[in-house]
């Protein structure tokens, strides 16, 4: 059975609608990984509209994110397609004109890395899709359309207050790896709600992209994702 036939008749993991144009989608885009590391990526059903919207965000992320880490997984992606992707992306080329040196703490060692201005909404927007895809992949659930889904950059430990609130309220915990060790993620689902969950993803060992040309002396960033009923999020 082909990947596309496997998802025929299933609801879109991102919007929940069943359409005749349903196809398979990699939750983490293949373009985020070196060619030899693309096996076994999580796949979900997606309608054409969601697939196209997510793909636009993936093109930007696959161009920018490898430049935000000195991790071997990021360098391998850059070596394969990095320059080619930058040449095709005018926005990223403009970002590079304002690149600066960013000093980051990695494994307790202060080291320089390139920091470039970037568009965080494009990255967090992608990870909002990814959060829905992970809920569907791991728990076979489709996040309701009226739920809040958010993503943000966070330093290690920033999620601790929220994690403390989760203790005793999480029914399931999952851990996953994509692209060998290029992406590491964890997810916790709440006891009283099959859709509410909190996710933490580490991309290329932690990202050091600078906002506004510089990010200062800081630890690498992870990406945190939250899926909750809007009434809970707004309180």
In short:
The protein is of the alpha+beta class. It is about 30% helix and about 25% strand.
- In whole angstroms, the N-to-C terminal distance is 46 Å
Largest sheet, in brief, is: 5 strands, antiparallel
Total helical elements: 7
Q: How much is the average pLDDT?
A: 81
Low-confidence stretches are 211-217
Proportion in helices? 25-40%
User: What value does the Rg take, in angstroms?
Assistant: 18 Å
Provide the number of structural domains: 1
Beta-strand share of residues? 25-35%
Shape: globular
List the helices and strands in order: HEEHHHEEHEHEEEEH
Helix-strand makeup class: alpha+beta
Q: What's the β-strand tally?
A: 9
- Strand order within the widest sheet? 5-9-8-7-6
Would you write up a description of this structure?
This protein has 235 residues and is of the alpha+beta class. It has one domain (3-233). It is 32% helix and 27% strand. The chain has seven helices and nine strands, in the order αββαααββαβαββββα. It has helices at 3-6, 48-64, 72-87, 90-96, 120-139, 160-166, 230-233; strands spanning 23-26, 43-46, 100-106, 109-115, 147-155, 170-178, 183-190, 197-203, 221-229. A five-stranded antiparallel β-sheet has the order 5-9-8-7-6. A two-stranded antiparallel sheet has the order 1-2. It has a two-stranded antiparallel ribbon with strand order 3-4. Helix 2 (48-64) packs across helix 5 (120-139). The longest helix has 20 residues, at 120-139.
